[in-house]
Amino acid sequence: MLVSLEWLKDYVSTQDLAPEVLAEKITRSGIEVDAVIDRASGMDKVVVGHVVSKEKHPEADKLNICQVDVGEAEPQQIICGAPNVDVGQKVIVARPGAHLPGGIKIKKAKLRGHESNGMICSLQELGIEGKLVPKAYAEGIYVLPADAEPGSDALALLGLRDTVLELGLTPNRSDALSMLGVAYEVGAILSEEVKYPEISYKTSSEKAEDVLKLRVEDLQANPMYVAKVVKNVKITESPMWLQHRLMAAGVRPHNNVVDVTNYVLMEYGQPLHAFDYDSLATGEIVIRKATEGETITTLDDQERTLKASDLVITNGKEPVAIAGIMGGANSEVTEKTTTVVIESAYFDGLTVRQTSRDLGLRSDASARFEKGVDPNRVVPAAERAAALLAELAGGEVLEGTCIVDELDKTPARVVVSPDFINERLGMKISLEEMLTILDRLKFDVEAANGLLIIDVPTRRQDIKIEEDIVEEIARLHGYDEIPMTLPEGAQVGRLTPYQEKRRVVRNFMEGAGLYQAVTYSLTSESLSQRFALKTEPVTRLLMPMSEDRSTLRQSLVPHLIEAAAYNVARKADSVALYEVGSVFLGQSAEGQPVEEEHVAAVLTGKWVDHAWQGEHKAVDFFVLKGIVEGLVGKLGLGERLSFVKAEVDGLHPGRTASILLDGEKVGIIGGLHPAEQKAWGVKDTYVMEMNLVALLAASANEAPLGYTPVPRFPAMSRDIALVLDRATAAGEVVSVIRAANVKLLKDIRIFDVYEGEKMEAGKKSVAFSLTYFDPERTLTDEEVVAAHNKVLKAIATIEGTEVR
């Protein structure tokens, strides 16, 4: 919310406080002021000029030589390239020596051999955003009113000698989405009274009810609808004071009728809409639910298809507006409009929010209806707009108001005791001060039987319960005045078991040499299921910022590869990253995406690069496999881990495996397919992703780690070489040996694989080192032989296997 202090002073005294001081007081009372904007900051020597004559520049077709009266004895020659400059105009002139936004300093200059003593300015050159400049002046200079005095201060005339406060409102403070709402807040802070604008106009003898019929078919979605009819309006530009107040509030001026509705919106916080009465054609307004598939072209020239749950304003036949959101192009106020219907209504916030979300269409009006508007301002806002149209558009307001009113306007009542307030604040505030604060807030309050009986004004729809009153008392008493006390009790916060183990995972990955990455949860639809451990229907955003960020991810790997490729492209030849983050799989029964936390990693380039020792080792499958084994071992699950060859789209068919825990798949590991590497712009790259929830859940069932003494007795080892079918995985042999449950066997390691020309076709030789050990005594050869024979017997059960 942008608040012009000059505009605010129409409703409440600011006690001539410096803008920064007032901003500090507002912030300390609970509404954060994000910025204090001096609209004339750094500008000087900007005056009103009168274009006395204009002639084409002899050396440039697009330049004009203008003689401009700037209040001095002689007109000044200024060369101007604006297409709309003309004789007789009152314009904005920056004199030589003037400073403009962006560090621009105006000097005397020569343009194509002719002297120019200043610059005729557009509004953009005075720091006003182009999107706020009226369309008539968007491509040229701004023309001032004919009665502007040459040589006078143009900045003051334009309303730029003003300061704007940018309020960072939280969703509950919808009351401050209007100038009057902010006036109430400032009045409460400074103990000042709020002044409402005077509403006065003459009515014609013709009655509004005679020319406009009104019917509401859904009173739940629209319990109150007000319409005023104004005839004989003249569509023109708004007066300059109105245009520049709108621009200060971040609203672009259009014409006097539309500007009045926007002005009252910013003033009262009540959205209004103006219909061209003749375009309605039927002399009737009917508010109803849309027919499924019904269409309307809105003011932004977009055709929109409606649902049966959407509320629309119709002329009894077809929609002319989407209730609470945007009007239709078929009833728009144009230069030919002579009779206007002013709509002011109370629409159900849930209905407006649902329609706005379904259509992907938001507006200033929908933002206010969604949060809740003041039901007691619906009629005054319509009256205020009628008065302004009579004043600024020469309109003739018809007598009476067309109205449907089934809206409950009863103020919310909150009953609270002073003791309750003091107990919650941990301090002592007197009853008298509480009553004073509530009076400053303009809350009706009665103290009786040790209680405060408070009727909350309908403009403050965020006040519902006792704690809300506590907050109001606290913020206006002053948060700084609340004493600091140490909390009672000895309860100490700690991590949950899941959080502790997740921290173990992060510490291990960083200790292993990987850097943590944090990537987007949103990705493109084409990448959302890439490398996913399991796939579910994707979840798309209704209004994505871009197609690259339109879908919730189901794998961490694509963004990690993207991060690696980004670094490689910037001459980082070795990258090792990991991420612990959520993937989103389908939807729960409540309709929300199901989050599942995973851990993933990407390695590319060199794993070891010791230039001094001449030691270099490139990343390969076994480097990443070792990290996985170390991580799972750290969680106490090493003996339950296994790897099985797998095929995953995008990964190398000979360097990819599924990661199994107790025989169940919990992850994948592998190298990128050469085609995939080329697409990403990387060389040998390896990735891994595991279901962290499954890992930590299994780890939670493990017994706590215990101390094992250093062995006093020697171990004995036996090496064995096996000829296996090439398709038989070495891990399968290890599993068979472990399944034999040989008590003395403590360790199995693979130390050699041979597939050379001396091997039979389709065979390979794998060598294992087996370690036998008893912590209580020294083993005898006979015991080791007996244990080793059990191993050999188990190996013999593997088809196609023989001992070399």
UniProtKB/TrEMBL annotation:
UniProt family annotation: Belongs to the phenylalanyl-tRNA synthetase beta subunit family. Type 1 subfamily.
Free-text comment on the cofactor: Binds 2 magnesium ions per tetramer.
SMART domains according to UniProt: B3_4, B5, FDX-ACB
Residue intervals of the FDX-ACB domain: 711-804
Cofactor: Mg(2+)
UniProt entry keywords in alphabetical sequence: Aminoacyl-tRNA synthetase, ATP-binding, Cytoplasm, Ligase, Magnesium, Metal-binding, Nucleotide-binding, Protein biosynthesis, RNA-binding, tRNA-binding
Protein's UniProt name: Phenylalanine--tRNA ligase beta subunit
Leader sequence segment: none
Taxon lineage: Bacteria, Bacillati, Bacillota, Bacilli, Bacillales
Domain TRNA-binding span(s) in chain numbering: 40-155
Chain residues that bind Mg(2+): 462, 468, 471-472
Class in the EC hierarchy, top level: ligase
Reaction equation(s) it catalyzes: tRNA(Phe) + L-phenylalanine + ATP = L-phenylalanyl-tRNA(Phe) + AMP + diphosphate + H(+)
EC identifiers of the protein: 6.1.1.20
Localization, UniProt: Cytoplasm
